Amino acid sequence: MESMFWEREIETLEREELEKLQLKRLKATIRKAAKSPYYARVFSEMGIKAEKIKSLADVKHLPYTTKDDLRKQWPYGLVAVPREKLVRMHSSSGTTGRATVVFHTAKDIDKWTNLLARCMYMVGLRKTDVFQNMMTYGLFTGGLGFHYGAERIGALVIPAGAGNSKRQIQLLFDFGTTAIHVIPSYAMHLASVFEEMGLDPKSTQVRMAFIGAEPHSEKMRQRIEEIYGFKAYNSYGLSEMNGPGVAFECPYQNGMHIWEDSFLVEVIDPKTLEPVPEGEQGELVMTTLTREGMPIIRYRTKDLTRIISGPCPCGRTHRRIERIMGRTDDMLIVKGVNIFPVQIEKRLLAVPGVGKNFLIILEREDYNDSMTVKVEVERQYFQGDLGQLEKLRRKITEELKSEILVTPKVDLVEPDSLPKSEGKAVRVIDNRKE
Ligand code: ADP
Ligand code: ZN
Predict the structure, then answer these.
(1) In this structure, are residues 414 and 328 in contact, taking their beta carbons and an 8 Å threshold?
(2) 265 and 340 part of one domain
(3) Are residues 89 and 99 in contact, defined by beta-carbon separation less than 8 angstroms?
(4) Where is 87: in which H helix or E strand?
(5) Ligand located closest to 315 CA
């Protein structure tokens, strides 16, 4: 059997060796970061020096870096090399406020590209594949990141970009696309465009999809795999850590391997900022280990996940993280109960008859919170007996209540009637005033 490893040696490095490499790279990163105006100041205030780092556990003496720190250092405060060494800028999507920017040297781009090649090769992308990238090109990292990664493998890349669904489908058929990169909510939307065009989503040659950029449940992945008849692999990344290529599922689809030769990983309690015991849920914190243009120390991603302990049958030694639950900012507090939109998604998709999109609306009246969940359901429910619709509405209400312990108002709406986005889905509209 052909090797599934892009770089067997590094992907299967013994933990002890991997940790030695991390320690060496962590020290080098501190030296590099100290050349940026921001870390130069912070390190000198805190008395931080690379020589003082004796073990990986010493990372706890380093400062956290937040999205706000990056925003305050706009634009060049964390750049650690002379301007002429920088070749590329990217930015975050700005989902939670002002976007942040990241700068790369040619070496950084080369390393990032390699990580993406590693991810895609792992699940079987080869030079014989036709790869259609349905992500926005430009400042967003999902376009160019995957583009160069697939080119490095030698696949034929179709830089389709986001949106323009009918043309996407045309391209899929005309050029025999075998692999796609797509946001999960967009994959759902695209399926309805197939239907509208009278085409079967299973009739393409696509055999794998890389899905990421937004939280989604295991149910959502299964639904996408069923609709299209291909394998969908979860892909996680963020612009501050290059973009995609941080963590990716292997063929076993049992968590995402996080590339520990490139990122030092911690999981902390977002309130106490102390590490959680291995395996417990917390906020993912990462330090870049090879970046030179803009090294970032202990970046607080706000993404909630847990480490999955134990070896993976694929043989890779890089640890796995569980699919992201959401950001700490995504947590809704309704009547004192903490709720993540993916919990709602997971339960909705478990109910037969539920369609491809939903929206959560929060209101407050006389100090009382109320939650409405608008759910697209299959067209047939609007054609026949209205009793059916009411039955479905009750079923969904029960299902949601058992998950979130709050009884939402459930509104069933026709397919394709809720707003959709070409980028990350907007799942919540919060009309509550403080
Ligand atoms: P922004 O932080 O403004 O959205 P990015 O485009 O850099 O900008 O997006 C990175 C974020 O997207 C991550 O921090 C995470 O919250 C989310 N994300 C990316 N990939 C996934 C994934 N596979 N599952 C869940 N969330 C993801
Ligand atoms: Zn694996």
Answers:
(1) no
(2) no
(3) no
(4) strand 86-91
(5) 2
Pocket test for ligand 1, best of 67, 181, 211, 214 (most atoms within 8 A of CB): 214
112: β partners: none
> Does residue 303's CB lie within 6 angstroms of at least one atom of ligand 1?
yes
What's the half-sphere exposure (Cβ side, CA atoms, 13 Å) at 108?
27
- Based on the structure, what is the number of domains in the chain? 2
Contacts of 384 (CB under 8 A, 6+ apart): none
Ligand 2 centroid to Cα of residue 319, in Å, is 9
Instruction: Pick the last residue of a domain from 327, 359, 390.
Output: 327
Ligand positioned closest to the Cα atom of 11: 2
The reply to whether ligand 1 has any atom less than 6 angstroms from the CB of 215 is yes
At residue 1, the pLDDT reads: 41
139: containing domain: 1-327
**What pLDDT, on a 0 to 100 scale, did the predictor assign at position 45?**
98
Are 254 and 336 in a shared domain?
no
In the chain, what's the furthest Cα-to-Cα distance? 74
336 and 314 inside one domain: no
**Phi (first) and psi of residue 249, to 5 degrees:** -75, 145
Token reading at 320: 């796995």
Measure 3 CA to ligand 1 centroid, in angstroms.
Answer: 30
For residue 333 the two structure tokens come to 């507090």
Q: What is the pLDDT of residues 161-220, one digit of tens each?
A: 999 999 999 999 999 999 999 999 999 999 999 999 999 999 999 999 999 999 999 999
* Higher per-residue pLDDT: 315 or 93: 315
In the numeric block, the tokens 């040297």 are attached to 105
Residue 88 and residue 104 in contact, taking contact as beta carbons nearer than 8 Å: yes
Does residue 75 line the site of ligand 1, with CB under 6 A?
no
Provide the 3-class DSSP secondary structure of residue 119: helix
Ligand 1 neighbourhood includes 214 CB (under 6 angstroms): yes
What is the β-pairing status of strands 208-212 and 179-182?
parallel
Task: Note the pLDDT of residue 23.
Answer: 98
The number of CA neighbours under 13 Å toward the Cβ of 76 is 7
Instruction: Give the Å distance between the CA of 11 and the centre of ligand 2.
Output: 10
- Residue 422's pLDDT is 83
